[in-house]
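Input chain follows. Return structure tokens only.
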Amino acid sequence: MMWLNWRQFRVQALVGVGALAIIAAYLVYFGADIRDGYDVYQAHCQGVADCAQARSQFLSAYKNTLLFLAAGLGLIPVVLGTFWGAPLIARELENGTHRLVWNQSITRPRWLLTKVLLVGLAAMFLTGASAALLTWAAHPFDGVIKSEFSTFEFGARNIAPIGHAALALTFGTVVGLLLRRSLPAMAVTFVVFLAFQFFFPNVVRPSLMPAERATLPMTAEAINEAQSLGSIGGGSVISGVKIPGAPDAWIAETSPLRTANGKALDGTKFNDCIDAPPKTGAGGTFGDAAVCLAKYDLHVDIRYHPRSRYWAFQWLETAIYLTLSGILTAFGLWRIRRRVS
């Protein structure tokens, strides 16, 4: 049985090995280049001003490429679920070849479970190896920027991608089992799991552990340390604020700018400070706008997770994905025993 499954899967396996070899070659080269850039950054980091400039140059040299790699490698589970998982059973049902196996001494559940285990372990290995290579390559950069909790980086580093691959593969297999057609199953798997990969980190992940809470006064200095003011949707919004004593924490939620009575700052006052602040000649990222806003005695309420929780989130998310994968596999075994002919 295992030999038959291997013969059916060997072409996809060879393609996967080839893709992994290309990924490995590039990431080893790119990781060495990052380490050279990191050595240059350290060599030029002598004073506060020099260090800030060297850090900015180091980050700008690699940030976009690493973001692209994280997004690209984060799609590996989606691709595997689509092209390995969805046709795994659907193709057999479509062509009627499943009946040949079922007329032998192989039971339906054993047939399905053997297929899922073989292809699932291969998908987990390919995804895990790619994630390990990217984690190694980006290690010096991650140590400087410290943004491990961001959506793309978290899902493409360390062990979480292994759980993603397991769930994508079993989800695609079950979709194929239900639809019994390869192309529709592939389309559904691709769209649904891609949407799920955006939904989970933005909606579910922040709530996996109880968040810490803090209230931060928004002085001119604090506002100038933020990443942005305002938003496309309007309102007195600030994002990318820094927590004193925990600058590397993952901020899960930031309230609008609030006045001393706890109410959100009036949108008209906010826009006036952004669009036409009184000229004071202040420096900083937002300059006069920061000084103007600070006069309203503002604060924000935030929910955040300390950086020390990173591995707890990694293990917890991986466990959730593996559990969901197990549930889908159990459903598939029940379905093929009772409903598929």
